[in-house]
Amino acid sequence: MPAPTPDNHDTFAAAEAELATAARTLVGDPTSGLSKAVNRQLYWHTAALAAGNTTVLPASQATADLAHRHSLPDTPQGQHLRAALTTYQHAWNSAVQDDTAAAGPHDDPPPGP
Predict the structure, then answer these.
(1) How many CB atoms lie within 10 A of CB 110?
(2) What are the 10-residue block averages of pLDDT along the chain, 113 residues in total?
(3) Less packed terminus of the chain by CB within 10 Å, N or C?
């Protein structure tokens, strides 16, 4: 599945920025209530994007699924992160669908001899 390009998807870029803001309040704080797996995924995802490294985008689906695969702290910061992850997941799915639709239909190859 192709990774969406934030430059081409304003909604995805906004969701990415909101996720970075929400993650910044929790990532790296040992008292945040984030599991090590969530902390690590969010850290690498947001750090790579902050550095302009778009090679992380294929792993964006893993980030988008965090709220469904892991429990998040039941705090205002955790709720903000959950909302940001949900928005990010919807934006990710929409952007990927847009990219797939833009690629056009794919014909099956003709049967062999």
Answers:
(1) 6
(2) 51 85 90 89 83 64 75 91 88 71 49 51
(3) C
